[in-house]
Amino acid sequence: MNTQKWARNGALGMLFAGVLTAGSYAQDVQNDKRDIREDRRDLREDRTDRNQDQRDINHDKRDLNQDRADRNQDQRDINHDRRDLNKDRVERNQDQRDVNHDKVQVARDDRKYGVNSAQAQAARQDLRGDREDRNQDQRDINHDRRDLNHDRVNRNQDQRDINHDKRDLHVDRKDRNHDQRDINHDKRDLRHDRRDLRHDRHGK
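The chain above was modelled as a monomer; its predicted structure follows.
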């Protein structure tokens, strides 16, 4: 009687242990499958982030190239304005010398021929013409100065844009590299979870 009872209890114990083992195996398999699904989802999200970061990098590169082109064009404009300004100053200075010469000539002709003489009137006409030329050259100088200042403002803004784009590019590259590391990490997790799943199935 005791032997039968002992055998029955042993069989029940083995059956109970088997049920527990099967339940534990099923739970492990479910956990592994859930981990794999989560790893795949993380991997998709990180790839999406990485691809967006790459698009941001490409956009920043285009912005940077455009801002550099703008900055270089502004620098060419500045150089052109400087040449114009220097040329206008030379012309203005020559016109001022002409004005000074004509003043002396008018005074000389007034003394020599009289104020109302044809020579004095011709000298005054030359003086008026040279003053008009000098004044026009001064207006050109003022205009060139404004252009030069405007181009410098544009060039400086473009340089600030370049610096800003470089910072954006640096940040986006860091984000892209970080997302790539996350992708590599998720791939390792996925391989590990797949290994666990195979091991759990084989262990059954």
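Helices lie at 2-113, 118-203.
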